[in-house]
Structure formats: C-alpha cells, structure tokens
Design brief:
Blueprint lengths: L20 H8 L3 H9 L1 E5 L2 E5 L9 H4 L2
C-alpha cells in the first residue's frame, strides 16, 4: 500500500491537477489561447468600454497549493 501525506488523501487526490494548460490544449487539439481564456477569463474592448469574459472551466487546485 502506498502511503500518502495527510494533505493528499485518497479522497482529494482526484482534485489534484495533473496536466498543465498547455498539455491539455495539445491533448484536446484546442488552441492554447482559447483554453487559457476558458480557464482564466479575459477582458476585451467594446464600444461601451471593456467587458469581462468570465472563466468557463474551474481548474482544480492542489491541496499543497492552499498550504503555501
């Protein structure tokens, strides 16, 4: 049996990001800027001023990230 740290329990192990955004874009054949926009959102100019495109995808965070 593999021992895991208390932060990486079996329950939250599935929420640890494995692939980078660049790797994911390559695997899914999606342009990198498109996937970055879907994950991070972005602002874009309009005649009425800047508008925000909100993220469509929520990227999982590692339990190790929250402890930093």
């Amino acid at each position: 049996m593999v021992k895991t740290s208390s932060l990486l329990t079996q329950q939250n192990l599935y929420h640890v990001p494995i692939y980078t955004i660049a790797d994911t874009a390559r695997y899914l054949h999606i342009p990198l800027p498109t996937l970055k926009t879907w994950v991070n959102g972005r602002s874009y100019p309009t005649q009425k001023g800047d508008q925000d495109f909100l993220p469509l995808i929520q990227r999982p965070q590692s339990p190790l990230d929250s402890s930093l």
